[in-house]
Design goal:
The chain is of the alpha/beta class. The chain has 12 helices and 8 strands. Strands 3-2-1-4-5-6-7-8 form an 8-stranded mixed β-sheet, with helices on both faces. The chain binds NADP nicotinamide-adenine-dinucleotide phosphate (NAP).
C-alpha cells in the first residue's frame, strides 16, 4: 500500500472521529460513516479536506483498502459489518473496538471466512495524541496484513504488532491498563500525602516525572529476573520492602490518608514473605502473582 491509501472509518465517536481526522490530515482519502449522521456533519465540516462522509457503510467501504471499525462493542461491530461482509474480501479490516480476546478471535474467524484480512487493534493512548508519535497502537492478527497496512497505520501513531493471535492486542491492552492503574493510583496516594505539606498535585506531578525514569529504569532488570525466575536482593530484600510498606501505611494513617493503595502492596508483600521470599528481591512478587499461589521457584 502507498502513503495515500483510501481508508474507511466506520464509527465517528470520540475515537473514530480522531482516527478519521488524523488519517485525512496525513493525506489518506478518508470516508467516514456513523450510525447517527448528525455526528458526521460536525466532524467533516471542521475536518481536513480529504475527510468525507458516506451515508451508508457500503458506500464508505467501496473504495477503501483499509477498513477501520470503531464502534461501542463487539455486537455493534457485527451489526455494522454483517451487511457488507462479502464486500470485505481482500481488504484489511482493523477493529479498534474494545472486546475480550475471545470476542475478537471470533470476529477474526468470521471476517476471515469472508476473505477479509483481520487485525485487532488497541488504542493505548486515548484520543488526544492520535496522529503523533506520542500515540501508541497495538495490533494483532494477520502479520502480512499489518505489514501491508503500515503506511496507513503509522499515521495514527506508533504501530506495534504483538502477534498473530487476534486476541493478543486485547490481552496486552488489559495488562497495560492494570499497569497504568497501578501507577496512577500510586500517584493519587502520593498527592494525598503531600497535600499535608500544602503541595498541590501539579507540583507532585513535576517531581514525580523526574523520579519515574529511575522506576522505569528498573524494568529491564526486573523483567530479566522474572523471566529467569531468580530474584537476587540487589535492590533490597522483600523483608526490607515489607518494612517500607508498613511505613507508608503508618504515615498515611497518621495523616488521615486512606490506606487502600498501600494495603494492596502490603497484602502482596506479605504473601511473598509467606511463600518464603523474604530474603529475595522485590521482583519475586512477579512469580507470586503469576503462580497465583506464591509458589515461585527461587
Ligand atoms: N475514546 C478512547 O479514548 C478509546 C480508547 C481505547 C479504546 N476505545 C474503544 O473504542 C470504541 C469506541 O469508543 P469511543 O470513545 O469512540 O465511544 P463513543 O464516543 O461513545 O462512540 C461510540 C460509537 O459507536 C457507535 N455505535 C454504538 N453502538 C452502535 C451500533 N449498535 N451500531 C453502530 N454504531 C454504534 C456510535 O454511533 P452513534 O453516534 O450513532 O451513537 C459512535 O460512533 C469503544 O469500544 C472503546 O472502548 C476508546
Amino acid at each position: 500500500m502507498t502513503d495515500h491509501e483510501p481508508v474507511a472509518v466506520l464509527g465517528a465517536g470520540a475515537l473514530g472521529g480522531a482516527v478519521a481526522t488524523a488519517l485525512a490530515a496525513a493525506g489518506h482519502p478518508t470516508t467516514v460513516w456513523n450510525r447517527t449522521p448528525a455526528r458526521l456533519a460536525a466532524l467533516t465540516s471542521a475536518g481536513p479536506a480529504l475527510l468525507t462522509a458516506a451515508p451508508t457503510v457500503a458506500e464508505a467501504v467501496a473504495e477503501a483498502r483499509v477498513v477501520i471499525v470503531v464502534v461501542a462493542d463487539e455486537a455493534a461491530v457485527r451489526a455494522v459489518l454483517s451487511p457488507v461482509a462479502p464486500a470485505l474480501d481482500g481488504r484489511v479490516v482493523v477493529n479498534l473496538t474494545s472486546a475480550t480476546p475471545d470476542q475478537t478471535r471470533a470476529l477474526g474467524s468470521w471476517l476471515t471466512t469472508h476473505g477479509a484480512r483481520y487485525l485487532d487493534a488497541a488504542a493505548m493512548s486515548g484520543t488526544r495524541t492520535i496522529g503523533s508519535a506520542d500515540s501508541l497502537f497495538l495490533y494483532a492478527g494477520d502479520g502480512a496484513a499489518f505489514a501491508a497496512a503500515e503506511p496507513v497505520l503509522h499515521d495514527l501513531g506508533r504501530a506495534t504488532h504483538v502477534g498473530t493471535d487476534p486476541g493478543a492486542a486485547s490481552l496486552w491492552d488489559t495488562a497495560l491498563l492494570g499497569l497504568n492503574l497501578g501507577l496512577l493510583t500510586g500517584f493519587y496516594h502520593a498527592v494525598a500525602l503531600l497535600g499535608h505539606l500544602d503541595v498541590d498535585a501539579a507540583a507532585v506531578a513535576r517531581v514525580a516525572r523526574d523520579y519515574l525514569p529511575f522506576a522505569t529504569g528498573l524494568l529491564p532488570e526486573h523483567a530479566r529476573q522474572a523471566d529467569e525466575r531468580r530474584y537476587p536482593a540487589d535492590d533490597g530484600s522483600l523483608a526490607a520492602y515489607a518494612a517500607a510498606v508498613e511505613h507508608i501505611v503508618a504515615t498515611s494513617v497518621a495523616h488521615g490518608v486512606a490506606t487502600d493503595v498501600p494495603d494492596a502492596y502490603r497484602a502482596l508483600v506479605h504473601r511473598g514473605m509467606g511463600a518464603g521470599h523474604g530474603a529475595d528481591g522485590l521482583a519475586s512478587l512477579a512469580g507470586v502473582i503469576a503462580d497465583g499461589t506464591g509458589g515461585a521457584q527461587r
